[in-house]
Specification:
The chain is an alpha+beta fold. Helix content is 28%, strand content 43%. The strands form 2 sheets. Strands 3, 4, 5 and 6 form a 4-stranded mixed beta sheet that branches. A two-stranded antiparallel ribbon has the order 1-2. A hairpin with a 2-residue loop joins strand 3 (49-55) and strand 4. It is elongated and about 65 Å long. The termini are far apart.
Length: 129
Amino acid sequence: MSAGTLRIDKPHNHSSTRAGYTSISSGTMTQLISAIAADAFRVPLKDVRAGIHSGPGQVSVSLAVPVALSLAPSILGSSPKTDDGGTLFERASSARAVVISRISELAGTSINRVDIRFTGIQATVGRVQ
């Protein structure tokens, strides 16, 4: 996967010279996507699996991530309450936008599709404040 071609402009001449190219290997791109997804979903990097697929005119990403839940003991009972910012579909939509934006920003690649599969629960138990 190629991120683009660098250009060097000569200071006194408006013509440009092709200096070479910069490429990002598919393994590096997969690691980059995994790191961005781990941050977007608030889960450890080790728990994220990512794949990148390119076809004619489109690049798609597949993600497998656990659902992050912050459990706090209820003040009135023993059942936990969760406060994680929306339904699973809302979280997926928000994280999808982050992945698309950050990949474009960091690698200069347009992602046309991000498929997300939740694979389990990543729960943390917090204290009531």
